[in-house]
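Listing S7. Sequence submitted for prediction.
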Amino acid sequence: MADFFDVAPTRAEFTVLRPITTRWEDNDVYGHVNNVVHYSWFDTAVNGWLMEATGTDIRELPAVGLVAETACRYLSELSFPDRVEVGVGLERLGNSSVVYRLAVFGNGSEQPASIGRFVHVYVDRETRRTTPVPEPIRTALARL
């Protein structure tokens, strides 16, 4: 089985595309969106989609998804004021973890400017011990 990073996905491979507004401050001294901004977009896209898809403020669930791992491969530059969409997909759903596959598309392009992986591990809000993925999130993930 090919790794997600082996072949860049196209826009059509994502059922969820979340619009992101680039900001003036996203550009770095080299004139393009700084690499760390892509990670922020991943976080914003995943959690924004989860809130919308579950109809729940996920911050109020008894279990919280903590980021345990992230990865990103940069393929082309983006710059303010580009229009950006983040494709959100599911790579793997475990008992207490979710691995998302992500891609940042700029200005309607079919090819991504970056691709990424984002892992949430669910823990009990109070004890911080791993716990199963909450049912509202598991249900929403079935749509991916």
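Caption to Listing S7: primary sequence and predicted structure tokens for the chain studied. The chain has a mean pLDDT of 95. The radius of gyration is 15 Å.
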